[in-house]
Amino acid sequence: MKKGGEPAPKARLLRAAAALLAESNGEPVSTRQITEAARVTAPTLYHHFGDKEGLFDAVVAEGFSEYLEAERSIPTSGQPVEDLRRHWDNHVRFGLDHAHLYTVMFGNIRPERRPTMVASAEAFLEEVLARAAAASRLVVSPHEAARSMLAANIGVTLMLIAEPAAKRNLELSAMTREAVISAVATDSESDPVTDTEGTPSVVVAAIALNAALQVSHPDQLSSSELKLFLEWLQRISSRSGS
């Protein structure tokens, strides 16, 4: 940051590009628009980012870096399902606090093209869900649960961003969060393997064992034996949706 509290040119370019992209409604954003909004010259943009597309890529990359840093900073509570709620709420809070940036990150989706960084966000959530699976709290696989939760989380956040701030109903987020969590997990602490609201106990046990073996790699099994065993567990786990 420059003296006097004004952001440096690179930071102003990133901020201006994110705001213009979010407000463009799909229309092209010109280099001139960006440089005027950032109060810099075109050569300054080229110096820092190479070209306009390089700047746009940097905007998205910085946004995801900040988002994942915030997600990873959330401490575990020792209660896997409660951790899911914390990550959901943090996602919504990040979106509302960085509305322009968030719409660039998660709102500019093209048909049949899944952004790599969205996949990275999903992979992190899958790590969190793997802990829930290992504790016998999931009734679907971590991968399936991660896709469902992230899709719903993004949809709710974009809807809240689109509403006037004074009229935002955060209960929408809480209601959707609980509906999604109840579809992929059980909050029961009495007997998580059998108390799963209709999900066969063998499926929950297989999901839990699968998650544990993915990270433990026991010495008692060879790599080929472990691979075959995991395939069997995956087949059992996938029956949760049948």
TrEMBL record:
<dbReference type="Pfam" id="PF00440">
    <property type="entry name" value="TetR_N"/>
</dbReference>
<dbReference type="InterPro" id="IPR036271">
    <property type="entry name" value="Tet_transcr_reg_TetR-rel_C_sf"/>
</dbReference>
<feature type="domain" description="HTH tetR-type">
    <location>
        <begin position="7"/>
        <end position="67"/>
    </location>
</feature>
<dbReference type="GO" id="GO:0000976">
    <property type="term" value="F:transcription cis-regulatory region binding"/>
</dbReference>
<dbReference type="GO" id="GO:0003700">
    <property type="term" value="F:DNA-binding transcription factor activity"/>
</dbReference>
<dbReference type="InterPro" id="IPR050109">
    <property type="entry name" value="HTH-type_TetR-like_transc_reg"/>
</dbReference>
<feature type="DNA-binding region" description="H-T-H motif">
    <location>
        <begin position="30"/>
        <end position="49"/>
    </location>
</feature>
<keyword id="KW-0238">DNA-binding</keyword>
<dbReference type="InterPro" id="IPR001647">
    <property type="entry name" value="HTH_TetR"/>
</dbReference>
<dbReference type="InterPro" id="IPR009057">
    <property type="entry name" value="Homeodomain-like_sf"/>
</dbReference>
<protein>
    <submittedName>
        <fullName>TetR family transcriptional regulator</fullName>
    </submittedName>
</protein>
